[in-house]
Amino acid sequence: MNLPDRLRSPAYAEGVNTFLTLARNHSRGIDRIRCPCRECRNMFFLPIFEVESHLYIKGINPNYTHWIFHGEEETRSFNADDEDSERDGADEYIDDMVHMLDDIRSGTFVDVPQDHTDPLPTSGSILDDPSSSSSFDQLLEDARRPLLPGCTKFSKLSFIVKLLHIKTLGGWSIKSFDMLLNLLRAAFPDAELPQSYEESRSMERSLGFNYHKIHACPNDCILFWKENAYLNECPTCDMRWHKEQRLTDQATMRHPADSESWKRFDEEHSWFAQDARNVRLGMASDGFNPFNNMAKPYSIWPVILVPYNLPPWLCMKDQFFMTSLIIPGPKSAGNDIDVYLQPLLDELIEFWEHGVPTFDASTKETFMLHAALMWTINDFPAYGNLSGWSTKGKLACPSCNEGTDSNWLKYGRKHCYMGHRRFLPPDHMWRRRKHLFNGKEDHRMLPSVLEGVDVLAQLQMLGDVQFGKARRKRKRTAEELNWTKYSIFFKLPYWATLRLRYNLDVMHIEKNIFDNILWTLMNVPGKTKDNINSRRDLEILGYRKELHLKYEDIETKFTRMDRNVDGGEAENIDGFKIFNQKVRPIGMALNLQLSNKLFTEATWYVLNNCDEIASYLK
Fold first, then answer.
1. pTM for the model
2. Interacting residues of 122 by C-beta distance below 8 A, sequence separation 6+
């Protein structure tokens, strides 16, 4: 291999012939073998004559001392502790199955817990003294039996354990594992391989690699272990937290129970608040497209109930959400959502008026469970669908109600809602800054909060509303304000007493307002609200004159005089109707001197299209 002159050395030629003879016998009639030259390095299959030329011209790989790919048996011993075994690779596999079984036999391998409160299953485990069982003798035999005749690297047991380890790391399915076993058995008929995954697992179970499942509380409170092993519910977290474990602080709101609406509900319905086990619910609903293809319009509306009896770090977890309804698509229900909410409302009324017999696991008694819907949570468009107050038009603000301050933007083609200074403190300086807003001071007070009785009084003016997409739209009168329907939630006996009936979710408020303000301040193209149409609307409204588009002595497309404007009635030529038509010439007006040819064509066109001379042309 290391001879200085390969082409002239008889010893090198004899070595090449010996190698090729061994390779031919190992190839079993196949004319292609791995090429062990310095460049191919056993990575490519080439014809035998080409391999011979590579060996003479390029030389054999000096690291290829054991011709294991060409029929030479490995010289390493089966024993992993053999000092003469190869230890060149850091990832080389060492078969220690016999040593591990010896440790199990002597009892030094077992790590037994000292405290066993629960009776752990011991059948088939290492606690059964495997040295006295027949299964242990079978394991020892499998650990000593080579995987293949002549294989010194893997035994039957070590190969199966290694294969199961790779299955776990790779996340293989049982079906794929069985398919691999079938392929290996077909490729290596003499191999000692199991028939299926279950047979492989049975060999692994005999080693004693068992485990015991210990259930835990979904909220990470306790383990159902030792003294809690036979409990069915967590003793730490329960549905009475809002009353028994909540810390009260008048200056801080940590939970909806700290809100004014919750406290007022307790005052109005003290019988409901006396039992902490009564459930308080919030309802959330919105439409979404369940398909990945957003080009396909589809809107499905889940109606989800949220229990507020739990702590704030639990009540909004998805494992406590209750999907009460799913309104199918493909179109949104819109204002007709009340039709689909009828079954839910009937159940809520039953929960409120009659209750449902429920077993309390903590007190081991049965009680009547009542429930109340505290409010809804949704975005602004869904607010209008659930409440019945349209969130479009000049009275879109449900808080300001009929006192909504709005303007129609001619060029923006939408409503602009003003009057935000009413919500500032009475002595705030912005109330007096006329030039920053609409040119007027604003000393108005906050709009009054509408109670349930006020809303019901307005709904009395509402006409007969029929649900259904097939019906024609009904014209609303001025007395109806922005009400589109009598919300189905007012069927709940307590709904009119709630101070806060509908909530807007924080996600849309934070993102949309932030985007509009930031993109306008940063003047981001395509996202800023400061555009040409908004400047033109400012001019019409008379606000912020310094932002208007018109400037003296500067001609723009908005101040430029119109071109090609028709003349008045006095400029029309009497006598021929063709000259009395109101038309707009195409293109820019120019002073041209017609040639005789063009003048003749124009005269012919006028005469040919005049009704007055049509009879003469016949």
1. 0.52
2. 128
